[in-house]
Amino acid sequence: MGVKKVILILAFLGFLYLDGLPLCTASVVHNYTYILKETKFTRLCSTKSMLTVNGQFPGPVLRVQNGDTVIVTVQNNGKYGVTIHWHGVKQPRNPWSDGPENITQCPIKPGKKFTYEVVFSDEEGTLWWHAHSDWSRATVHGAIVISPKNGTSYPFPKPYAEEVIVLAEWFKGDVKELIDVATANGSDPQISDAYTLNGQPGYPNNCSTTTTYRLPVVQGKTYLLRLIHAGMNEEMFFAIAHHKLTVVARDASYLKPINTSYVLITPGQTMDILVTANQSPSHYYIAARPFFDSNAPYDNSTTTAVLQYVGHYTPPSSPSFPTQLPNITDVSAVDNFTTRLRALASKDHPISVPTGVDERMFITVSVNQLPCDKTVCGGPNNTMLAASLNNISFLTPKIDILQAYYRNLSNVYESNFPNRPPSPFNFTGDSNDVFLLPSTGTKAKIIEYGKRVEIVFQGTSIENPENHPMHLHGFSFYLLGTGYGNFNTTTSPKTYNLIDPPEVNTFGVPKSGWATIRFVANNPGVWFMHCHLERHASWGMNTVIIVKNGTTSATSIRPPPANLPTCS
Ligand code: C2O
Ligand code: CU
């Protein structure tokens, strides 16, 4: 079982290349096969069947070098239609292989297959892949490791070894059933029963102590941890007892090294972290717990793994716990970490922040309610819970938007996603129920090729203020700044970092606050934009950005692949 890395072809030079041997620096095509299938797993003293790739949880690791291409053939032997998304891979001109269900493709039906062409460009570090259909990503996800090209190196001393660490959430029940129930009546979905670290809940969760994930380390050596938050609904703090962390990359883009005792990571984000085993030989807990600051229900448990020094020594009976791990509601711990992110911005890893703006958007990010005509209604006062961007709660179409756009099909989506909410209001004030009920629709924003785009995301206090980790497909972008309260067009831009803002694909809009991003619309295609809290995405906190073709074929969407899944 496992991933079959079948062939490694040197596309241009036509001679044989052995993986890992530094023969030359041309980009390489890798082949993987993903078999989607139900697999039995036992956690928290109970067994369930769940959808996996190749029977693995977390799923297989895709390993590439900067600039490579990966061909992944996905065979669906499961019970329902699924798609796979390559989170953070820009896929230049190739939205066909991006994956979000009914946005760029229809699902791969049971018994069918689809071949994705995953095109890497300048990403380097850690990304991940995940299912992008309903909540199937809870069990269908894995790491993408992008190493420097042969002949180039990390912008930090080469680590002794590296390890992927995937944070996720474990639901005892069937994830598809629980989200189908929640969306049918607009209720808060059931919370998870545990968090997992590399597939294991770990101490102190039921029946988890002996199966806790262990990371062996040699004293004195430095390790590169590739941390991925594949969880569904909560941001998380992460720390290792008695050990310092140095964060060197976020979302496959290098940072000025940040020395810290803990990190905060949102669903969707990835982080490359150096840790040196410089303590006395023993065993130490690696731990993660949620950051949560809202009235919504959430899983408040802790997951652990063990950093285990190799060698002969007598450890204390139980490992020490990271006392520096912040408490669940510690907002200042979040801000103290996230405001330290700066792009590395070196000669080898330059950045180019657009200095001007051609297209300006201001998008309110809200949790709302919708009228409910069911016998059981999940929201307050006989409503259904909903969510919106600029007061529009997104409806997923039946035919994918990419196909509708490419083939000029009408009645699939509208091209009028607005540049601002219907009218200004006190976004973060006390009573904003004027926009409690959003409109609904499938509206996309059309942007001309090459425009410099700036988007201010404004959190609101409607229904329930929360943090929102927003994600845009097809791009990475500069996070210029964040702040609390209502965005002020005069004073807020003065706080922007235009020198070395981090280049990311997922960023937190602070509760009752704002965040600003900037990028050049140089990737033609249909790109999903959504909150990476699955609860909010299911309620409609989504939209689509369509970047039009440029004037040449090199700046236009590629032709569609032959084997696209059919809709219906
Ligand atoms: Cu992690 Cu729409 O993606
Ligand atoms: Cu959200």
From TrEMBL:
<dbReference type="InterPro" id="IPR034289">
    <property type="entry name" value="CuRO_3_LCC"/>
</dbReference>
<dbReference type="Pfam" id="PF07731">
    <property type="entry name" value="Cu-oxidase_2"/>
</dbReference>
<dbReference type="InterPro" id="IPR045087">
    <property type="entry name" value="Cu-oxidase_fam"/>
</dbReference>
<keyword id="KW-0052">Apoplast</keyword>
<dbReference type="InterPro" id="IPR034285">
    <property type="entry name" value="CuRO_2_LCC"/>
</dbReference>
<feature type="signal peptide">
    <location>
        <begin position="1"/>
        <end position="26"/>
    </location>
</feature>
<dbReference type="GO" id="GO:0046274">
    <property type="term" value="P:lignin catabolic process"/>
</dbReference>
<dbReference type="InterPro" id="IPR001117">
    <property type="entry name" value="Cu-oxidase_2nd"/>
</dbReference>
<dbReference type="InterPro" id="IPR017761">
    <property type="entry name" value="Laccase"/>
</dbReference>
<dbReference type="InterPro" id="IPR034288">
    <property type="entry name" value="CuRO_1_LCC"/>
</dbReference>
<feature type="domain" description="Plastocyanin-like">
    <location>
        <begin position="164"/>
        <end position="311"/>
    </location>
</feature>
<dbReference type="Pfam" id="PF00394">
    <property type="entry name" value="Cu-oxidase"/>
</dbReference>
<keyword id="KW-0186">Copper</keyword>
<dbReference type="InterPro" id="IPR033138">
    <property type="entry name" value="Cu_oxidase_CS"/>
</dbReference>
<feature type="domain" description="Plastocyanin-like">
    <location>
        <begin position="37"/>
        <end position="150"/>
    </location>
</feature>
<dbReference type="GO" id="GO:0052716">
    <property type="term" value="F:hydroquinone:oxygen oxidoreductase activity"/>
</dbReference>
<keyword id="KW-0439">Lignin degradation</keyword>
<keyword id="KW-0479">Metal-binding</keyword>
<comment type="similarity">
    <text>Belongs to the multicopper oxidase family.</text>
</comment>
<comment type="function">
    <text>Lignin degradation and detoxification of lignin-derived products.</text>
</comment>
<dbReference type="Pfam" id="PF07732">
    <property type="entry name" value="Cu-oxidase_3"/>
</dbReference>
<dbReference type="GO" id="GO:0005507">
    <property type="term" value="F:copper ion binding"/>
</dbReference>
<dbReference type="GO" id="GO:0048046">
    <property type="term" value="C:apoplast"/>
</dbReference>
<keyword id="KW-0732">Signal</keyword>
<protein>
    <recommendedName>
        <fullName>Laccase</fullName>
        <ecNumber>1.10.3.2</ecNumber>
    </recommendedName>
</protein>
<keyword id="KW-0964">Secreted</keyword>
<keyword id="KW-0560">Oxidoreductase</keyword>
<dbReference type="InterPro" id="IPR011706">
    <property type="entry name" value="Cu-oxidase_C"/>
</dbReference>
<keyword id="KW-0325">Glycoprotein</keyword>
<dbReference type="InterPro" id="IPR008972">
    <property type="entry name" value="Cupredoxin"/>
</dbReference>
<feature type="domain" description="Plastocyanin-like">
    <location>
        <begin position="417"/>
        <end position="549"/>
    </location>
</feature>
<dbReference type="InterPro" id="IPR011707">
    <property type="entry name" value="Cu-oxidase-like_N"/>
</dbReference>
<keyword id="KW-0677">Repeat</keyword>
<dbReference type="InterPro" id="IPR002355">
    <property type="entry name" value="Cu_oxidase_Cu_BS"/>
</dbReference>
